Structure formats: structure tokens, C-alpha cells
Amino acid sequence: MLANHSSATEFYLLGFPGSRELHHLLFATFFFFYLVTLMGNTVIIVIVCVDKRLQSPMYFFLGHLSALEILVTTIIVPVMLWGLLLPGMQTISLAACVTQLFLYLSLGTTEFALLGAMAVDRYMAVCNPLRYNIIMNSHTCIWVVVVSWVFGFLFEIWPVYATFQLTFCKSNVVNNFFCDRGQLLKLSCNNTVFIEFILFLMAVFVLFGSLIPTIISYTYIISTILKIPSASGRRKAFSTCASHFTCVVIGYGTCLFLYVKPKQTQAADFNRVASLMVLVVTPFLNPFIFTLRNDKFMEAFRDVMKRCCQLLKD
Questions:
Q1: Are 102 and 145 in contact (CB under 8 A)?
Q2: Domain ranges in the chain?
Q3: What is its main location (predicted)?
């Protein structure tokens, strides 16, 4: 589509293959997932903010994780839904593509940093309960969250800048439903071997930099839980970590497949499926993972709903 132009000023998102009927079915499915994601994560943020019983580091981090889920899906999913309703390919400007990719990668990096911090928090709660409130005080929690956000946004400046310094002269059709970095690299007529290798190293640093403390934390957590004499004590200790552990397995599993590979430009169809897992399925599941088996949260939720009903009756 670029003809004689040397680089792209806009891109066309190829989206999903298939008929219009399939697109309408996908729109209905993803729209439902998106609404539930918004409502579920918003409920978590509101309950954590208004209920004093949830004023602890675990729920403080959970509130920020829910905010990240809302933001990262809102950057991508509405554009994807609009593309499913449009006939043909969807046009996105160069500026919008840069912004979308930068925010998506920055928020994702922030989320991994926060997941690593949550693992350390669970280690402190289970393995050092007497010192937990001293170490994980409000000042520490705020500092951890601020560092996670700042790190996420600063870390992704160079990768996005380097990506859009390339010349996109092969085509301006992105074989995905958003400005996927791997597919953008595929459109470049520059030699991308070096930049792909650097991006691979940076992805390894982010993912394993947060995964290693998570693995170490859970090694100590499991060892401590197994030493608890009573079965009820072991169940109670494990229940405080089960939600985070489940989220870690799903999140890291999909992102390791998607980003930690030396060749970023391969397997567009597999990347599309993995991207859907990261952007649609995981944010949809997280509110249920973190709340349904959490007795304290469910009790707080019921109390807030009762208060809301009483206010409506009055």
C-alpha cells in the first residue's frame, strides 16, 4: 500500500480474518469480556478504598493492579471492537500507533514489577508475620508502587523510540488488531536483527527480573506452609497466596510465549491469540481470581452492597 513512499504516516490494522458474521460474534464476545473487566476491576478498587478492613498492603497492591488492568485493556480493546464493526481494514495514524504501543508496553512492564512486589509482600506476610507490619508500612507500599509506575514508563521509552525510527517501506498493513511491535518490525526494510536482540534482552530483564523474586518468595512460602502442623493453618496460609500465584502463572505464561523470543517478527497468528490472552482473557479472569475465594473481600463487598441498598431505600 505504500507505493513510492519511503515510510508510513499511518497504518492499517488487519484485525481478525473471517466473515462479517464471525466479526459480529467476536465483537459481542469481546465486548462482554471488556464490560465485565471494567466492572470487576472497578468494584475491587472501590471496595479497597472504602472498606477499612482492606487497608493492608495486599489490597493496596491489588487496587493498583486492577487500575492497570483497566488501563491496559482500555488502550487496546475499544480500538479492536471498533475494527470488528468496520468493513475492511482499520486505519490508525502514526501518532496514535506510537501512543498505543508505548502505553501498552509501559503499563505491562509496570504490572510485572507490581506482581513481583506482591510476591515479596506475600513472603513477608507468611514467613515474617511479626515484622510484616513494620516492614510493609504505608510509606514502603507507596514507594514500591511509585517505583513500579516510574520504572514501567521510563523503561519503555527507548524500545518504542527505536521501533519508530525504522523505515516502514515494505507495507503499512499491521497483521494484528493493534500496533503490535513484532508486526511493525516485520514491515521495516531496515536490518532489525540488532534491535530485535536488544528488545529480547530487555524483555528477559523485565520478565525474569520480576519472576525470580517471585520464584524465590514462593519457595520460602511453600517451605514455611509445609511446616505448619495443622491442616487448617496450612489452608489459611496458602489461601492468602493462591490468587496471586494463579495470576502469576497465567500472566507470565502468556507473556513469556509472546515476548521472550529472539525473533520478534514470527508467527502472527500465534501472536494474535497470545495478545488476546494478555489483553482480554487475563484481565477478565483476574477480578474473579482475586475475589471469589477471598473471604475478607467478599464480606466487605456484601457489607458495601447492603449499605448501598439501604441508601437507595432511604
A1: no
A2: 10-313
A3: membrane
**What are the strands of the beta sheet with 90-93, ordered from one edge?**
90-93, 10-13, 173-174
Q: List the grid coordinates of 219.
A: 519457595
Find cell 466487605 and name the residue: 300
* Cα 247 from chain centre: 10
CATH for the 10-313 domain, from 1.10.3720.10, 1.20.1070.10, 1.20.1250.20, 2.40.10.170 = 1.20.1070.10
Tens-of-pLDDT digits for all 314 residues of the chain?
444 444 667 888 988 887 888 999 999 999 999 999 999 999 999 988 888 888 888 889 989 999 999 999 999 999 999 989 887 788 889 899 999 999 999 999 999 999 899 889 988 988 888 888 888 898 999 999 999 999 999 999 999 999 888 888 878 888 888 998 888 888 888 888 888 888 888 888 988 888 898 889 888 888 888 887 877 777 776 776 777 777 777 777 666 666 555 555 455 666 777 788 888 888 888 888 877 667 778 888 888 788 877 777 76
- Which residues, at least 6 apart from 94, have a Cβ–Cβ distance to it below 8 Å? 8, 9, 10, 11, 164
